[in-house]
Amino acid sequence: MTATEQQPLGSPFSAASTAEDVLAGRDLSGTTAVVTGGYSGLGLETTRVLTAAGARVIVPARRPDVARDALREMQGSEVIPMDLADLDSVRTAAAHIGDRIDRIDLLMAVAGVMATPERRVGPGWEGQLTANHFGHFTLTCELYPLLAAAGGARVVVNSSAGHTLTGIRWHDPHFRTGYDQWLAYGQSKTANSLFAVNLDALGRGNGVRAFALHPGKIITGLQREMTLQEQIERGWVDEHGHVVGADFKTPSQGAATGLWAATSPLLDARGGLYLEDCDVARVSAPGTPMDDGGVRAYAIDPEEAARLWDLSVAATGATPITR
To answer: What does the domain layout of the chain look like in residue ranges?
Structure first.
């Protein structure tokens, strides 16, 4: 991937497109997908539409009983316990997935947390970086042989416009010198984008292509750590919790870009790109407002991506991926 490839392709879909629009007429029978967070919010919409199209969908879930209840009516879905913030749990889940299937066509990293209070997990790691990045990084590395076996797999990682808040804080990625919930979130979303860049570089020889994306502004369980008053002050909802913010999407519209990334023929032979509104995003200039869209250059920089990859392998002990 080069910055010159980070240009819209003229997709037939848009910010208004729904998950159903993107997969209309598609038969995904014989396709196996793994969808983290696939039982609530955007993940639930993703699982619903994939299974309706005939795909088999495995849903790693921190709350497996809740997940099974949410997915009860979705034929072709199955739940495996997993906590992204617990890397032993991630490795166990990956092993269980490997016992059930011999390939993965789609790995969709939809689960995430946002603007949480300070939490330390594992060896004192910052919680948002761990759940949003290290957990998905480890899962993908452990499942990589199954992705390579598919001979044309795609990995789709939900990033966010929040990546514009900060690049990787190389001097203090775990906020040991003072915690800021929004900067921690922004860093984790930059990490999601950089992860896709380097995974694509390593995996393309095996037909594994990777994409990151901004799903749009959507009110889902992602905001569960924020008070109603905080959401009102940001202009997102009214005092009754009803969405009033401009340009907010429905959950189905929010899931559309990820499903477009997973299935669009326009992305054949492409990868390492950041997407939004069912198309490739443009590169945004430093200092431009977050809501103007686009991706910062630092979030798709191959050298930054390789540096984060090395840091992540060393931190997690994940099985390395080689070209």
So the answer is: 3-224+250-316
What residues act catalytically? 185
Interatomic CA distance for residues 319 and 196, integer angstroms: 17
**pLDDT truncated to tens, each residue of the chain (323 aa)?**
456 799 999 999 999 999 999 999 999 999 999 999 999 999 999 999 999 999 999 999 999 999 999 999 999 999 999 999 999 999 999 999 999 999 999 999 999 998 899 999 999 999 999 999 999 999 999 999 999 999 999 999 999 999 999 999 999 999 999 999 999 999 999 999 999 999 999 999 999 999 999 999 775 555 556 566 665 656 555 665 666 556 778 999 999 999 999 999 999 999 999 999 999 999 999 999 988 999 999 999 999 999 999 999 999 999 989 87
Q: Supply the pTM of this predicted model.
A: 0.93
The correct answer on CATH 3.10.129.10 for the domain covering 3-224+250-316 is: no
3-class secondary structure per residue, 149-203:
HHCCCEEEEECCHHHHHCCCCCCCCCCCCCCCHHHHHHHHHHHHHHHHHHHHHHH
Angle between helices 41-52 and 251-263 (to 10 degrees): 60
